[in-house]
Amino acid sequence: MKKMSLLVMAGLFAFSIQTMAQENEIPEVVNAALQTKYSNAENVEWHAKEDKFKASFNVEGKEMVAVFSPAGDWMKTYKHLTVGELPASITAYVSEQLEGFEITSAYIKKDPDGKSYSIKASKGEEIVKLAFDMEGNFLSKET
Predict the structure, then answer these.
(1) 124 and 73, same structural domain?
(2) CA-based diameter of the chain, in Å?
(3) Residues 51, 106: one domain?
């Protein structure tokens, strides 16, 4: 009886390990879409999140994140920026409109609708997300 219980438990454990491995696999169509869009991507790391796949990678020394649907459709890309790479109008907006906040991350977001700047700023525990057009004009704020 003990042997049977051990065999059943071992079988269940192997099944759960196999299921976890399958869930972590990236569909070939998604991987191919990344290679087509960013053939020079290096150090690619995949993350499955809800109904999309995120690839973190480097292109020419820049950190990027691209998001794809399960069918391999490109949804958007974020290119990491330093605060110094932002237009002066964006850093001035944060200084003037969000007293005490510091920019903690900055990206150029590219999606089928075009490009924009995506910024996160924080003050203590409070975090805001800001969007600006490519000329540095404020578009939206999300808390």
Answers:
(1) no
(2) 74
(3) no
Sign of CA dihedral 48, 52, 56, 58: positive
Same domain, 42 and 87: no
Alpha helices, DSSP H, located in 25-87: 28-37
- pLDDT, position 24: 59
The total domain count for the chain is 2
Residue 50 — very low, low, confident or very high, per pLDDT cuts 50/70/90?
A: confident
- Residue with the larger pLDDT of the pair 7 and 138: 138
Residue linked to tokens 């042997």: 3
At residue 16 the predicted structure's pLDDT band, cuts being 50, 70 and 90, is: very low
Question: By residue range, what is the domain housing residue 54?
Answer: 26-77
pTM over 0.85: no
Coil, strand, or helix at residue 25? coil
